[in-house]
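Note to self: the last two entries modelled the partners one at a time, which told us nothing about the interface. This time every component goes in together.
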Amino acid sequence: MSAAQFREEHLVRAAFARLAPIAFGFALGAVAGFALWLATVLLILKGAPPGEPVGPHLALIGQFVPLYSVSALGSAMGALAGFAGGFVLGVVVASGWNLGHYIWLVTLARRFDSAAP
Amino acid sequence: MTAPLSVAEKRLLDAAIRFNRAVIALVMGVVSGGSLWLATAFLLLKGGSNAGAHLGTLEIFFPGYSMTWRGAWIGFAWGFLFGAVSGAAVYAAYARALQAQLGEAVFDPPDAPPEAAPTLTIAGHKFGLAVGTLLAVQLILGTGWILAHGSREGVAGASLLAQFLPGYSVSVPGSLIGAIGLFVFGYLAARVVAAVYNRVARPGPSVPRRRPLPQSAAVRPIHVAILGAGPAGLATAHELVDKGERVTVLEQNGYVGGLCRTVEDGGYRFDLGGHRWFTKNEDLNAWFRRLMEGELVLVKRTSRIYYGGKYYLYPVTLRDVLRNAGPLMLVRAVFSFLLATLKYGMFERPIRNMKDAYVAQFGEALYELFFRRYSEKVWGTPCEELSADWVGQRSKGLSIWSIAREALANRRSGVRSLIEYFMYPRDGYMRIPERMADAVRAAGNKIVVGSRVMRIACHGPHRFEVFFSSPGGERSVVATHVVSTIPLGALAQMLTPQAPGHVVEAARGLRFRDLITVNVKLARPQVTSDTWLYLQDEAIVFGRLHEPKNWSRAMVPDDAHTSLVLECFCSEGDALWSLSDDQVAARCVADLVETLGFIEASEVLGCNVVRTRHAYPIYDPDYSIKIATIKAHLDRFAGLHVVGRGGAFRYNNADHSIEMGLMLARRILGHDVDPLDVNSEAEYHEEVRRATPVRDHYVLQPSAERSAS
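The predicted structure of the combined assembly is written out below.
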């Protein structure tokens, strides 16, 4: 292998670096959980005119997340649910990224295997 | 540290970025579309008078979307498009950061196992810029869209963003102010994601994969007895002689070349099986070009499988499967391939035998269609009773990253892969061993043809005496090293001191497949356009054929004539082997004329039949244990080496055997290389890296000199 090929090969390896699914899930989960918690707390602090509910539109998340509401307890649930949702999203995206590369590389290797006599 | 990328590297990087952009677009599209579909389906199933009233306002952006099942699928399509474009945009923006990162990677390659992809480190600032910019642009465009097309509900819904984005309103200036806030939010969120991710994903120390090589102390002066004048033995001899060492080559046959023999009869030349020169090792290619200067032709490879009256390109293409086997088979092939990839790749289901190995690579449907019959014809044994090691051996020792590099580099340039062309000596493959033999003889060394090795006596480390029969009677040669290319099992039984019983038993257990090659001389200009044609049908006596004229015009007497070389796989003593040469030739011609309809009987001018013993080592389930047993015994003899297809009991191509031979010579000379790494799992890269800046592993310093320096 020539020096140029050697460099190029490392370049391809680096460009095809894999995403760590758990780490990516953890990172997205942490940010999503915090964001939902923060949004809920902001609305609680802002409050609402007397007789009107606080944050009725954000409260719609309760349709997907049991026990979520724009309240102190709800903000904690929101943080948990945001983390869970972000974590799943991160794992799926990272795994999809890795799987895309994996399938392409495996396909290439098989094509190469077939091509050899 | 970073290094500037060359033009070629930048092109390669662009290709990799384009590919990655497509991957992330697909992934984000599926995630985004899937999420919207799931949310819609969830609300539909939940029901209720007002369910999905707010989600339904997405119709403003996604025409056709509604809180119905049809709307869910339309939402999936829009969500896919939105996610794909967003993902691609973020990656395209982020890719600007890659150049610096990759410059670093190229300058200082990570010390990781060569087959493993490194773990991505996210550049927080660039990622933040990309995400923040995307969100800001989306807010501006979204607000503009609402202003142009939106309803009152749309405006009311969008206005809610003002609760989180100070200054935002559904207006042009409001959207610009909101975009600044959203950019800051996106930037910070992405930076946090990157920081958390990089911290959690920080890679641990890598584990060296390659076993340490024992240091080989050079013995001086040396005289090497080489048993067998095939490609491996002659390559060893050639390299040793080139470095000024003395060798004696003993060859049982009356000619050099071994399995790379080319037979000539009346102007027709044919190889025993048709070998091509193919290696992705550029150092070896350079060596080969020097050796064969003035004699090489470049041949375009066209291999096909003939089955059921139809031709399939080999390597198999989905287009061929669709055209010849129908859409149902194509669907089966794709699904079984994906299933196999998941089972064997992602969930690491064990691969126990050749069938498993093929299924893991191609899926059950393609295995049944293309590989089972042919493999069982070649080996004479069900695939379940053969080791998996044979399958995929071609890509072992070759980094997947090399293949990926070539695929990316060639993607847009239109340059066809080197796999699709091969080099071939104009007058037949035997010219390679003949050129090596010429050089060995020219340096004053002997190649004794017609000499059969009887026994090898070892009188101590690097003190061998090889006894052989020749037309002049039994003779012997004394040597400091013995390089054996004769079948491994036979070698173990001809050594003295004699091998213990269990070694002899292992040696006797190693089996080879034999080969009958039939050359059919024809009075017609051409039969096929292929370089190889594989014939799966069990009723046809031969398994593979090639037309030497398609490889080189010099292989036939003139343009009006051609020939077909047919390979009949068999074992000594079986029904096929027991036929006379005339009977084998007659059956082959009958298959060509009657079964296949390739030629007319009147066109046949005659046939040559050549029988070859020990053509293919059979990888039965226990072969590796037998080899290990024998090797453990042979390792006691300092100065004894095995190499080549039969010698190492490894299914080498000729280029593998030559490379093994060259590396063995280097090892004998004291270099820190292992010839058995060729055509095995080991990588050259580590060797190259250790020797940096010397990249060519054929010009490594001897280990002793390196230690001294």
